[in-house]
Write a structure and sequence with these properties.
This protein has 91 residues and is mainly alpha-helical. It has a domain at 35-63. The protein is 56% helix and 7% strand. The chain has a two-stranded antiparallel ribbon with strand order 1-2. It is elongated.
Length: 91
C-alpha cells in the first residue's frame, strides 16, 4: 500500500487541535478559578510563551519536509546479497 507523506499530517493536526483546546481550558481554569496572584499569571504567560515557541519550532521543521514523497506500508523490499561463508566446523 503506497501512501503519500502528507497523510501523516491528518493525525498530527487532530492531535494539535485537541492539545490547543485542552491548553485553552487549562489556562482559563488557572486564571479564573485558581488563586489570582502574580506567580499564577506569570506561570500562565510562561506556559503560553513556551507553547507558542513549540508551535513555531514545529512549523519551521515541517516546512522543510518534502510532502510529495510517497512511502510503502507492509513488507520492505530489500534484497540482500547472498554470502557463502565456509565455517571450520562444517564439512
Amino acid at each position: 500500500m503506497i501512501l503519500s507523506l502528507w497523510f501523516l499530517l491528518i493525525p498530527f493536526s487532530l492531535l494539535l487541535v485537541v492539545w490547543l483546546v485542552l491548553s485553552i481550558v487549562a489556562i482559563v481554569k488557572m486564571l479564573r478559578f485558581g488563586f489570582v496572584s502574580r506567580p499564577a499569571v506569570i506561570s500562565s504567560f510562561a506556559f503560553v510563551i513556551f507553547a507558542v515557541a513549540v508551535l513555531v519550532g514545529t512549523t519551521v521543521s515541517l516546512r522543510e519536509v518534502d510532502w510529495s514523497v510517497s512511502f510503502e506500508l507492509g513488507t520492505p523490499s530489500v534484497e540482500l546479497p547472498s554470502v557463502n561463508i565456509s565455517s571450520p566446523f562444517t564439512r
